[in-house]
Amino acid sequence: MKALPSTSSKAPVKFRMPTADNLVPIRLDIEIDGHRFRDAFTWNPSDPDSEVVIFAKRTVKDLKLPPAFVMQIAQSIQTQLTDFRSYEGQDMYTGEKIVPIKLDLRVNHTLIKDQFLWDLNNFDSDPEEFARTFCKDLGIKDPEVGPAVAFAIREQLYEIAIQNVATARESRITKKGRRVAEHVPVSKAGGIPVDLMKIFSNKYSIVRFSYISGKEKSGIYMSLLLIFYQTRNWMPLKQRKRGMLDDRGI
Description:
Helix content is 47%, strand content 17%. The protein contains eight helices and six strands; from the N terminus they run βββααβββαααααα. Residues 1-9 and 189-250 have low confidence and may be disordered. One of its GO terms (cellular component) is nuclear chromosome.
């Protein structure tokens, strides 16, 4: 597969797994009427959803599980695919990012504990090929170890990709907050934004302004806190001594 161009922290890419194959790690752990089914595998999110039910029926038949497992397996897979697809199309930062991958697995009689670095900008990377080389170098003969190692890598890369989407989103909010701060009109009197004067009409002004400015405590929000306390301390000394408040509760 052709490698995607290298990115920097200032140039986000659209969400996908930072590997050659854009596969979703699926984990199942279902128990019905004393029967338990556990499995872990990857799924191509581009496959039609009809394949999910076909897979569930075939799995139940091959493993001789109760028929009730068909619906539970299909539903669990579909839910995890929906979660993955909810991030598609969103910006994701990778940057010059080398991340640690940790392995702590027990597969049959084999215990794996290791840690290594992974390049998130290498969209040509192949966890399955890495796992095969890993097992060969360590002389591991159990055929189930390789897939388990590859799956563990993909699970961690998936979590990191989700975090990178959140980072890109927070960056957009911060930049938007800065743009708002630069364009807020200022009154001639005291340098206080004109719209802020209207907001001080009741005691819920901070909550209302927090909604306007966004999720994070931007520079505007902190300025509001300062203005709020300055306004509160503006009460004449005699009123403060008597503990009197005006109708706004300030």
